[in-house]
TrEMBL record:
<feature type="region of interest" description="Disordered">
    <location>
        <begin position="166"/>
        <end position="190"/>
    </location>
</feature>
<keyword id="KW-0540">Nuclease</keyword>
<dbReference type="GO" id="GO:0003964">
    <property type="term" value="F:RNA-directed DNA polymerase activity"/>
</dbReference>
<dbReference type="Pfam" id="PF17917">
    <property type="entry name" value="RT_RNaseH"/>
</dbReference>
<dbReference type="GO" id="GO:0016787">
    <property type="term" value="F:hydrolase activity"/>
</dbReference>
<dbReference type="GO" id="GO:0004519">
    <property type="term" value="F:endonuclease activity"/>
</dbReference>
<keyword id="KW-0255">Endonuclease</keyword>
<keyword id="KW-0548">Nucleotidyltransferase</keyword>
<dbReference type="InterPro" id="IPR041373">
    <property type="entry name" value="RT_RNaseH"/>
</dbReference>
<feature type="domain" description="Reverse transcriptase RNase H-like">
    <location>
        <begin position="8"/>
        <end position="91"/>
    </location>
</feature>
<keyword id="KW-0695">RNA-directed DNA polymerase</keyword>
<keyword id="KW-0378">Hydrolase</keyword>
<protein>
    <recommendedName>
        <fullName>Reverse transcriptase RNase H-like domain-containing protein</fullName>
    </recommendedName>
</protein>
<keyword id="KW-0808">Transferase</keyword>
Length: 190
């Protein structure tokens, strides 16, 4: 609707990343985490919790936080594109219809800028960021705004980032098909 927006919350723990997608009444400038708890103002649409592999668990905290946003945006990208009008980056008339909330200031600023380290060939981290930048480049037309929320008010995303009961011991990256289903059995066609 005209006066609705998508709100995404994300968090990372030592062992996993998690997030949630809400449909909210109001504009992105007015929504905060308290509104997400009010059923008259928001509806929970989806959640995810994804275990980090042994290599990902060694990342810096801000990398895990950025990865949580990246994972959630990948998960809901098609829905967000289909339900929001793409804009030209920097268009002053564009009204953001997607709100991203994170409790990490470093993640928030890195996500806004998404700059590569000096030499993209110098390290594994640089190559990882290069891949992430390539993914994020296609999202630049989405009408989103990213805001900071206090860690204590990001409790649901924090729970989702700790939901995984045991860390993955795999050394290979997991796929979207391997995300936690929150204990629900996998769907099988009859």
């Amino acid at each position: 609707g005209v006066n609705t927006c998508w709100t995404l919350i994300f968090d990372a723990s030592e062992d996993a990343v998690g997030g949630a997608l809400y449909r909210c009444k109001g504009s992105t400038s007015d929504i905060d985490t308290e509104d997400l708890k009010d059923p008259a103002k928001s509806s929970l649409v989806g959640v995810f919790s994804k275990a980090l592999d042994v290599h990902q668990r060694g990342w810096a905290v801000y990398e895990k936080e950025i990865y949580s946003v990246l994972t959630g945006m990948r998960k809901w990208y098609r829905l967000l594109v289909a339900t929001t009008k793409p804009t030209t980056k920097g268009d002053p008339m564009a009204v953001p219809k997607i709100l991203i909330l994170t409790d990490s200031m470093v993640c928030m600023y890195r996500w806004r800028d998404f700059k590569l380290p000096e030499s993209p060939l110098s390290s594994v981290k640089s190559r990882r960021f290069l891949g992430w930048c390539e993914t994020v480049a296609s999202w630049q037309a989405l009408p989103y705004v990213i805001k900071h929320c206090k860690g204590m008010s990001n409790d649901f995303a924090d729970l989702l980032s700790r939901w995984v009961s045991r860390p993955s011991t795999s050394t290979r990256p997991s796929t979207d098909d391997e995300e936690s289903t929150m204990g629900a059995p996998p769907y099988k066609k009859p």
